[in-house]
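Form 7-S
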Amino acid sequence: MSVSDKPCSHDGRLGEVFGAPVAELYRMAVGPDASAALTRALEMRSFLALAEEQVARICTRVHEAMAPKRDMDELSADQLRMDAQWLEAALSARDGYRTALDDLLRTMPPPGRRSRPVTTNQQTITTTLPPATAVPAPQRAGTARER
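Output:
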């Protein structure tokens, strides 16, 4: 299954912001008129979808391990500790991707507005140096030192 087909918690928000379902947004992103904001948002959405899938897999694995009908002799504290570490890492990644995507959607230019290159006018300052006055060279300039 492609990452573009995986469900994500921000699919509704992306649809609202860009005015199309996620599947259509992925098609738009490969076109020549794709905005940088759309491309970045979908890239971040892909990372988020993977992180959310990891969280779901770990939760399923823990639930299966702790099922009431499961043989208690099969329980492993070490395995559950490892799953807890994996879950912590996956949740941290998910939170980071959600924050980054929210920040991007909040700060990007409004849809439909093309970004244009910024031009700056640098002012130049011209100065003229005062005319050089003849300053005599020190008497010993250019001579080797005596020993």
